[in-house]
Amino acid sequence: MKLYFYRGVRPNFGDELNWWMWPKIFGDVFDQSAENLFLGIGSILFSDHPKEMRKIVFGSGYGGYTSPPVIDKKWDVRFLRGKFTAKALGLDDGLAVGDSAILLRSVVDYAAPHKKVHKFSYMPHWESAEIGLWKDVCELIGINYIDPCGEIEFVLKEILSSETVITEAMHGAIVSDALRVPWIAAKPIHESHRAKWDDWASVLDLKIRMEPILPSGLLELLISKIGQRGFISSKLQFHGKSLNGIRHDAFVIRAAEQLQKVARTMPQLSPEAAIQRAHQRMLDEVDRLRRDYPELHCQQ
């Protein structure tokens, strides 16, 4: 069975959870098989997956970045990230269970006592981390910076050692919520990253309050206006270091002041009953998938 997930210019936390978590649940079963494609964490439901392969959907979402796939007999949809995804794919919203990163509850000892080293931590979206100055912003106001492209175990440790996680990265919120660490949603600077938050929240009796943040540098401001991709965007990013040097302190100070305001807002958590319900349904699907696919029986 082949494990598929998105990997951009740099590995990022939400997508890299796939290679870290799934072997802990199913064992050493993933290879380059051309028969079955396993789709887990991420907005990875699109139309250009190989038509001849069976696509096993296990908590994935539709992000709106591409056209939605046409679901035929080659799609084995076990459960979806949320109701927005179900609607986009023309499927029953009873398949909307939650983002499969919630299964971290089965492999991370989140209930054990964890020393809270950081009052607040901030995790930007990985694209914002790439083009922005968020480490400088956090250092200015004494908020712990979590690199969304950091090693999985280090990021998990940073989340668990925080009293509150402020996050522009959706999986910063999803993982914090699953591990019962209060979080504050920072409204993604890039509009294309916003809708999928509501998809995840739709199955957890959760209404997300998104707090606005400000671009941390000139490059981030420009990219937020024209989008992350395209010829002009690529040119701007090529000159990113020099652009971010223009009025560096002014951008960092304004972003820091706004982040301080965000830190004074009320953090969120999904209801305990909702997260337990989603987790149990996922565990039921894990068992059902093992029964249906013999290669998944070799759990470590």
In short:
By secondary structure, the chain is an alpha/beta fold.
What's the SSE blueprint?
Layout: E1 2-4, H1 13-26, E2 36-39, E3 54-60, E4 75-80, H2 83-88, E5 118-123, H3 126-131, H4 134-141, E6 144-145, H5 152-160, E7 162-167, H6 170-178, E8 183-186, H7 195-201, E9 210-211, H8 218-226, H9 231-238, H10 240-245, H11 248-263, H12 272-292
Parallel strand pairs: 1-2, 2-3, 3-4, 5-6, 5-7, 7-8, 8-9
InterPro entries: Polysacch_pyruvyl_Trfase
Protein name: Succinoglycan biosynthesis protein ExoV
Pfam families: PS_pyruv_trans
What are the main properties of this structure?
300 residues; alpha/beta; Rossmann fold; 2 domains; five-stranded parallel beta sheet; four-stranded parallel beta sheet; 12 helices; 9 strands; 13% strand
- Quantity of strands, as a count: 9
* Spatial order of strands in the largest sheet: 6-5-7-8-9
Q: What sort of overall outline do the alpha carbons produce when their principal axes are compared?
A: globular
- Give the SSE string: EHEEEHEHHEHEHEHEHHHHH
Give the helix tally: 12
Structure class: alpha/beta
Number of domains: 2
> For the CA atoms, what is the radius of gyration?
19 Å
Mean pLDDT: 90
Strand composition percent: 5-15%
Distance between the termini: 16 Å
Helical fraction: 25-40%
CATH secondary-structure class of the largest domain: Alpha Beta
Question: What does the oligomeric state look like here?
Answer: single chain
CATH architecture label of the largest domain: 3-Layer(aba) Sandwich
Tell me the CATH topology of the largest domain. Rossmann fold
Low-confidence stretches: 229-233
**How would you characterize the largest beta sheet?**
5 strands, parallel
